[in-house]
Every structure is written in structure tokens, then in C-alpha cells.
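Reopening this one. Same input as before:
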Amino acid sequence: GPETGAQRKRDVNMMRLSGCFLVLFFLAGCGVSIVPSPQASGVIDVQERSITQTRDNLEVTVKVQDLEYRPYQRVDNITSFFVSVKNAKAREITLPLNSFVLIDGQGNQYRPVTADRIHEIISRDSFYLMPYPFVGYYYLQDAAHSYYDTQFESSLPYFPQRFPQDIYTQALPVGDILPDARISGLVYFLVDLTRKESFDVRLYLPGTPPAASADFTFPFFVEKK
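Same output, byte for byte:
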């Protein structure tokens, strides 16, 4: 006989569940860890996988926060780094976003991306976002079905879709850093680190010539399991 609405709903749910297991299987099969290089100068926190360096009364800490800040979709992959800067100088310092640069093991250069650009990318592909942890919207119709099925539940899709302001509030507040003050937040790059073997995050303070060595260099390895 004709398929009932309840049967169609069960079929849709089964397809979604199958998709979840496929994505989980895929992610489990390509585990990647970002670890500090043992040759890194400064203090390495093995548990946090961070590197902290101090120079000229500036203390800077860097670690990878998210390999895929925007969930699974390979176009414009966004990687976020947690950065903390403490100014122990007797004067304020200015730290613009373009002070940071990422150089991979092949010499490819990546500049940070502003929070406005991240919001634009995520908004552009909002129907393809994955709700946390691993449920994907691949079609507009599926997204609409899921919205009506789950609008009264507490589980929310991946947070930038519902809470885009978090992109801004979690970003590193670049600008003037007062004496004895600290800033912390995320720095975003459009880069897929899972395809790399190693990379450096470098920090050039204002006044340092581009051709000179970076004031701070944080080397990392990409471990693939």
C-alpha cells in the first residue's frame, strides 16, 4: 500500500542515523593530533599541547583549539588557535591581527582571517553545517525537516549557526595591550592542517621587518594515527 507519513519519517530517521555512523566511522579512521615540536624553545605543556615563550617582557602561549572550527566540509576549512599574550612591559603595546602568520613544512604561507570573514563563510554554508557532534545537513529539505522535528529539543546545531556572536566574542581582541595586562582568544586561519606534516605559527611584533626572523616562533608536528 502507499507509504504512510510515519513510515516516511522512520525512513528519513534511518537514513540520518546511517549518515551519522558513516561520518563517525570516517572521523574515527583519520585521527589527527597537533603536538608541539620537541625542539620548540620555551615551555611545552604536554597535556595542553601548548607552547609558551617569553621574550622582552612578553609572554605568548599558542595551541591549536579546533582543527575544523566549521564542521565537516572541506571547502575553506577553518582552523582556530588559542593565543594568550601577557604584556609585562612598562608601556602598552599594539598587536594587530596581521602580526601572526602560519608557515607549513612546504613553505606555504597563511595569514589570519578576521571574525567578519569567518562569519561570512559560516553564514554562506549554514545549511551544510553539522550539528554538534556529527549530524550533517546535506540538503535544504533535510534541514527543514530536522528543524521542525527538533525545535522543541535542547540539542542545538553547531553553535555558530545559532550563536554567530560567539565567533566575535571568542576571537583574540587585537589592539593595544596595557602594561601588566593579558589578552586571550582565538586566531582563525583558512588551512587544513590534517593535510600537513608540520607548521610554525609566527608572531612579528610591530616594527620587526618582514624579512627578519619572527619575534616568536611556535613549531608543531601533525601526528596522523
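So the earlier flakiness isn't reproducible anymore. For the record, The helical segments are 5-28, 115-124, 140-150, 159-162, 165-169.
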